[in-house]
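Give me the fold.
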Amino acid sequence: VRPNRCGNTGGGHILKPEAAGPLEAISTAVGTYTLSHGTRFCVASPWESTIDRYAGWHLFEVTSTRGRTTVTIDNQEVKSVPGENALDRVLLNAGFAVDDILMPGLNLNHAFWDEISVVLVEPGVGQSNATSMAEDVPVSMTSGRSWYKLETKGPSPPPRFAHSSVVYNGTMYVYGGERSAYTFNDVWAFDFANSTWSFVTPQSGELPPGRYDHTASVTADGRMIVLGGRDASNAALGDIWAFNLHSHSWSRMAQSTDMGTLFSHAAAIPGNATDMYVFGGYSEGGFTAALHRCDLSAVPLRCYNITHGCGSQDPSNGWLPDSLKHRYEHTAFADDRYMYIYGGASRSESYGFGGVYKFTVSQCYMEEIPLAEGMGSPVARYEHVAGLIDGGFYVQGGHAGGDYFDDTFYYPV
């Protein structure tokens, strides 16, 4: 394929999608055709490649107004031609071939539309009627999902509970935990590619004391940050350690911080950030609803209490939702832009909390995510595990009202 050109089909003739004949000059086509150009969107007529493309969700818009038809992808104009189009002349489809010939790989073709809407942009165009988003039903594109036990290789970690894990570069790292009044301070690695466990030998002289009910979070550059927990005597800890997942060396980042001692809290590090956010847990004063930001790049490391705002808010008003109360045994997880907090329990809410909260890092803004109308009551859990994936998070097991659960829930965010 020549640079910035997409190959013609049908013996040099540019064909309509239904292979009915040559495209007229007024016709416009936009899409992907890997056999023509593997890394760019293509437009016609004539066929040309435009902006780079990649697998993922894209915003595709067709605007017909004031004598022109314009097509944009992710707010970038890729085609603009004279003449207006009626709505019934806009075709969205996937899987077209040419001249009814089955192209190589066509059976693997797939595409999804998350939302299709029509907006009135000029008088004379009728409004569209669509159901509200509250009537949408979340679905999963994966069928036959089930649990199964992995057949692993290599020596596995000794049994334990209240330990931690992080995932980095295709490997899960497990640290700490407790069993029969013994606290662990070892690190184990599980390689997902070959289902193999291995003991990670530390390469530094100073090691953190064994602990459980702590947190571990991972940075983009491959450091596992361990905070607080309890030791073998059940005493609360307030230190912070870093384990370099490349050099396998430990370093103590802080013996103590302004947070004091803390266990059964939740912590997360958003994307490429150098800040770790810590919420709740059991502190020296009992259950807490404090939110802290720890600057991992500062020397010495500093943690700031942002319970009443990040600096611009009025502390007298409070900015955390009233329902985000003191708690422990909850979970927190983050992507590049948001941190989420879910579940937990306290003395006043022994059954368990079920709310989901979203913290927008760039705006220092916390909000509770409401359930869609008709979707029932929030599912309460504590001492559970949760993991964030594209579009939502999974929750497995835990307690609620003193009962144990082995079910798995998915919550779209």
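DSSP finds no helices and 30 strands in the chain.
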